[in-house]
Amino acid sequence: MVDMYMCLEEAISAVYLATLKLDAEPAQRAKAVSAAKVTIGKSARMIGQNAVQLHGGMGMTDELAVGHYFKRATVIENQFGTVDHHLARYAALCRAEAA
Q1: Which residue segments constitute the domains of the chain, with CATH numbers given?
Q2: What CA–CA distance (Å, rounded) separates 42 from 4?
Q3: Most distant CA pair in the chain, distance
Q4: Distance in angstroms (rounded) separating the CA atoms of residues 57 and 47
Q5: Which residues contact 30 (CB under 8 A, 6 or more apart)?
Q6: CA distance 31 to 25
Q7: Is the pTM higher than 0.70?
Q8: CA angle 61-65-70, nearest 5°?
């Protein structure tokens, strides 16, 4: 559960950084948003999977909200580009910045 909490805190910090970069140059803003999307996507997956595991077989039943939250997090993870898409976008922006 500590690892889940650490992932949550990382995701929150990534959101704060992306929010603070909204007034920055477009390239910096795009990097921050892509970094936040990757961090949030990975955190949501890790937290959701472990929450289901903590609850055992009940985690995916309709009786517990954990299954609903995990399914919703999976949908949100793929909205506006997948983790892989934003990771590649971040790498391309870093390469363009270095050149």
Answers
A1: 2-98 (1.20.140.10)
A2: 11
A3: 54
A4: 16
A5: 89, 93
A6: 10
A7: yes
A8: 85
The predicted-structure confidence for 25-50, as pLDDT tens digits, reads as follows 999 999 999 999 999 999 999 998 89
Please give the structure tokens belonging to residue 2. 């500590």
- Structure tokens given for 6: 């650490």
Terminal-to-terminal C-alpha distance of the chain: 42
Name the token pair of 41: 């996507």
Polymer length of the chain:
99
Q: What angle do CA 82, 88, 93 make, to 5 degrees?
A: 125
Contact between 80 and 30 (Cβ < 8 Å): no
